[in-house]
Design a protein that fits this description.
The protein is an alpha+beta fold and 318 residues long. The chain has a single domain, classed as Thaumatin (Sandwich), CATH 2.60.110. It contains 7 helices and 13 strands. Strands 2, 4, 5, 6, 7 and 12 form a 6-stranded antiparallel beta sheet that branches. A 5-stranded mixed beta sheet has the order 3-1-13-8-9, with no helix packed on it. Strands 10-11 form a two-stranded antiparallel ribbon. Helix 1 packs antiparallel against helix 7. It binds 2-acetamido-2-deoxy-beta-D-glucopyranose (4 copies). The site of one 2-acetamido-2-deoxy-beta-D-glucopyranose has 6 residues, from helix 5 and strand 12. Keywords: Disulfide bond, Signal. InterPro entries: Osmotin/thaumatin-like_sf, Thaumatin, Thaumatin_CS. This is Thaumatin-like protein.
Amino acid sequence: MAKIYLHVLFLTLTNFLISGVYPSATFTVVNKCEFTVWPGILSNAGIAPLSTTGFALQKGESRIINAPSSWGGRFWGRTRCSEDSTGKFSCLTGDCGSGKIDCAGNGAAPPTTLAEFTLDGDSGMDFYDVSLVDGYNVPMLVVPQGGSGVNCTSTGCITDLNGACPSNLRVTSSDGEDVACKSACLAFGKEEFCCNGAYSTPDACKPSSYSQVFKSACPRAYSYAYDDKTSTFTCAGADYFITFCPSPNASKKSSSEIQNGGSEDNASSLINNTMVYEGASQVSGAPSIYAHFFSSHAIAFPGAFAVAAAVLRLCQFF
Ligand SMILES: *[C@@H]1O[C@H](CO)[C@@H](O)[C@H](O)[C@H]1NC(C)=O
Ligand SMILES: *[C@@H]1O[C@H](CO)[C@@H](O)[C@H](O)[C@H]1NC(C)=O
Ligand SMILES: *[C@@H]1O[C@H](CO)[C@@H](O)[C@H](O)[C@H]1NC(C)=O
Ligand SMILES: *[C@@H]1O[C@H](CO)[C@@H](O)[C@H](O)[C@H]1NC(C)=O
């Protein structure tokens, strides 16, 4: 009886050490925009929130966030946020409706660019994507650091789709600036765009002329609900940089400042060469010399095993 109890204790402890104390991955959120971005984070249903669910990131700032194993959820950027006279916080794009900087379990109001993650999914791989299914508000780039896998590469939408947005999808602020671009589903609510009702299968729901505008600007991002094949990426044992407005100039600087690299990165497939984006071919920055060995994954296991071994030794006394 005591043995079973200890065995359970041992498993629980090991589990706790891996999932609770030591992170499974770190996310480094970087703001390269010329303006403040207020990132929002929503964990998937049934998954605990991370240490923050929303914060301000000034131009040039970055913040590291640890995620436990098997975490799943999304990151997005909120723009043009402010507090009204009653102290209620809201944003022009990406607003989560909480009235505070923390999103506290609320998601983003579309249209919003999303970076979506499922850590330690099938075969222990992390699955991630950048999605325009809910529309677009700010350029986002996800660069895995130190992971492995056949398609463990950067993804994102680094083109300015607010400028390139079809006029009937465009969201313009009261002062005349293009601040977001709706998806066709959001703008027209038709089943053929939303892939629901009669169009709820991959065979029935095809790309539309609207989703093709997104796809041709951002070939690696999800442009509609069944765009999985070209838009889902996988890594084992990676950490992730999530960059808002990854301008080519800024990412060159960042490669030395914060080792924002990605040596396997091929930026030319992130953008469409036929579209004009200043210096975009250089967006991947310098080859990374980031030593993954010292990052969270490598540390989690020796740490957990050391304590597990100690517990095992303890067991021998009973
Ligand atoms: C790039 O854009 C052009 C023109 O918009 C389009 O015809 C082409 O299919 C796009 N390429 C990719 C890879 O999406
Ligand atoms: C990446 O690999 C996964 C798993 O093999 C596959 O489902 C997905 O389509 C691949 N993505 C790309 C963009 O090639
Ligand atoms: C980026 O660099 C180019 C040339 O090096 C320069 O003309 C441009 O103004 C820079 N853009 C920003 C946003 O710093
Ligand atoms: C990057 O990708 C493009 C198109 O997918 C390919 O033509 C090019 O050779 C690749 N470059 C490198 C350095 O892998």
